[in-house]
Design a protein that fits this description.
Helices cover 60% and strands 3% of the residues. With 173 residues, it is mainly α. It folds into 2 domains: 62 residues, Arc Repressor Mutant, subunit A, CATH 1.10.10.10; 87 residues, no CATH class. Strand 1 and strand 2 form a beta hairpin.
């Protein structure tokens, strides 16, 4: 998505809610979105029309169920990927409490550029998957003990990680 068509924080929540409802129930309606976000149907309809204008959401012809366009789906996966990376970076790399990490990652997810997200992925993967090697090379001191619950080592690249994002599965209960 180009920077001219940036999404507001609330627009992101609409997209993520459509995605969640579609994945969980198989459909998403304005009524369902309003209930899920605790908003009026009128305000949801207005927001959905804005997302339609941006080419991110459309309606199924026969049922009027809302669906993400391919561009909308790509945007949701990019946002979820950014949120996941930010959450674990803040929690495991910086040491922020998980509730704060969850809130802050939600606030920042849609503001992070694709380039920053890609660089953050590589940085986190390098540190998470190469700690022992970096200690042997003297880059990290031997007493450095780093652990993260996010398995970045199983992903070859940021695109593969991005495609695998399904929802808020990274959040711990």
């Amino acid at each position: 998505m180009n920077r001219d068509a940036e999404l507001s924080h609330s627009m992101v929540h609409y997209l993520l809610t459509i995605h969640k409802l579609k994945e969980g129930r198989g459909y998403a309606r304005v009524t369902d979105i309003a209930k899920d976000l605790n908003l009026t149907k009128g305000s949801v309809s207005t927001a959905i029309n804005n997302l339609k204008k941006k080419g991110l959401v459309t309606e199924e012809d026969d049922s009027k169920f809302l669906v993400l366009t391919s561009m909308g789906h790509d945007e949701v996966h990019r946002i979820l990927s950014s949120r996941t990376l930010l959450y674990y970076f803040l929690k495991d790399f910086v040491g922020v409490d998980k509730e704060i990490a969850s809130n802050d990652s939600c606030l920042m997810e849609h503001l992070m550029s694709p380039e920053t997200s890609e660089k953050l992925f590589h940085f986190m993967k390098t540190l998470a998957c190469s700690c022992e090697d970096l200690q042997k090379e003297g880059v990290l001191p031997p007493e450095f003990k780093f652990q993260t619950a996010l398995d970045l080592c199983s992903y070859e690249n940021p695109e593969e990680f991005n495609d695998d994002q399904k929802g808020d599965k990274y959040l711990e209960d």
